[in-house]
Fold this protein.
Amino acid sequence: MADEAPASTLPYPPIHLDKKFVALSDWDGTITNRDSNDYKRRAGNLEILSGTATFRDEFRKMLESVVENGHKFDECAEVLRQNITLDVGFKNFYNFCKANDIPVVIISSGMAPLIRAVLSKLIGDEEASQIEIIANDTIIHEDGTWEIKYRHPSSGYGHDKSQAILPYRRLATPPTIFFFGDGVSDMSAARHADVLFVKQKPGADNDLAAFCNREGIKHVLFEDFDRALGVVKKVVEGEMTVKDALAVGTA
Ligand SMILES: [Mg+2]
């Protein structure tokens, strides 16, 4: 039952074999900073958390209203490039992972072309082209309108992130899996990580933490990737077990 995988409309990159650690991270609001005062989205999130709506349908509705207001895809990409900022510690974290043979994979419920566009502005074209992204895609129509192409249209998540983690779990010698997330789109992945990091934004509600507390899923709260790196480093360097890391509670 738990292994019933939704069909994927998009390919996956090959999984990294024989790694001791992998770092999988949500993009929006985790690697990037997002305005948490998005009240319209907040109302949708509460419905998702309470189970009365799906992420897939709420997100599609939101995007449709953007298209209905006449915004072309390139314009949206440019607005995001101008406005999205990176978590203060992410570059450090990414460099540590690179130096220690830890693959970093972005697991997002957003659209890969937008993520790539923003990432190339934030960390440069070359680095941006190297980071793996498992996300949804975009369909751009001839009349200039566009829509999201969900990876898992049959899943209420649109992109069921657990499907990016489970192949690692099934390896004969699975790596230690670090997962970083902040919101309702990460709920499907939350229980499959070895060490789940939940991003905590000062003064904002935390939907993923609420979900984890309700479901009894142990996690580490972190404010930015510099803080998370402190814990990751200790686990990687053998100073701390996964269990110890989860017992810490806050990075
Ligand atoms: Mg997020």
Observations:
- The first strand starts at residue 21 and ends at 25.
- Strands lie at 21-25, 32-33, 85-86, 104-111, 132-140, 146-149, 176-181, 195-199, 220-222.
- DSSP finds eleven helices and nine strands in the chain.
